[in-house]
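G., the chain you wanted modeled:
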Amino acid sequence: MIEYVAIAIIGVAISTELLLIVFMLTNFKDHSNTIEVFPSVAILVAARDEAENIADCLDSLLALDYPDDKLQIWVGDDASSDATWQIINKYAKKYSIIKGFQITTSITKGNGKANVLAQLANASKSDWIFITDADIQVPKLWVKNMLAATENREVALVTGTSLVSGNGVLANIQRLDWLYATAMLKVISDIGTPVTTMGNNMAIKRSVYEEVGGFENLPFSVTEDLELFKKVKKNYDTLNLFSSEVLNISAPQKSVVELLIQRKRWMRGAFELPFQLLGILLVQAFYMPAIIILILINPLFGVGLWTMKWVLKFIFSSISAKKLKEKVSLFDSFATELFAMYFSLASVVYYLWPRKVYWKGRAY
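Predicted structure as tokens:
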């Protein structure tokens, strides 16, 4: 009986990969456009203990191709214990376009990042609010291409694409994991059911942000970007973009323990997702235990199905990477799949373990 259940789960997982490939090839919506009007933009960055990354982030934002008189960069230091504030302050003194703030009070329901973003949004004035993270580097045309996609469309929120980049096997595994996840979000969005945004690569109309009450009006969540998306999606259209021109690069988690802590926070938010995406995530979560069980019962058959699933996932990832002008290594793909067999199980155990979610030195 257990063998047939495992085969059924694996069959659904393989079918899902096939559908993702078909939709990516036949239903991909390219929202690229040219921008003719340049609205004012405020880029918000929340930083906590990011001394290692914040300078690279600010340098990339300063290199943006956008009219200086229409752009401001607002950076909030969230009680960092390292040199983050000193670096922010140094940049703010040197570049008038950068506004640095030390956040010492709270106006939101517990989420530190949401609190910083809420206060920066209230302090800034602009037609559009862009949000990214302190460990992100943005491409030169990020703002222009995010806004260009909204030309001639009534769109209130735009989501770009983000990938991890770094040295070593663990960083490459995270890169492929992010590629698969963001490509899947793009497919789901293009079939007409966008389900979330990304807090390190998003833009929202200020009028809509204020209409929904901003971050201070959201219920507590460790995934504040999803909560904001859900508010906006009730009454407005959103876009998911998938191109190299809106591809933000994130620093990787440095260890498996840090990665587990990150995924526990993400998994908490995942259970708030619509059933379309949650169903796919649950299939992926149960796939690994199912394939391990099947390999133990019938090694040849189990390995055969595992290979089929991996090849299809590699094809989908390769197609998706090409649209971002990136490449997928066969070795990295294989290593990622092997790692996933252990990490997915460890993530479930860690998620169920009666321990709080830890994020930037705070427990939630």
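The longest strand covers residues 41-47.

Shout if anything looks off.
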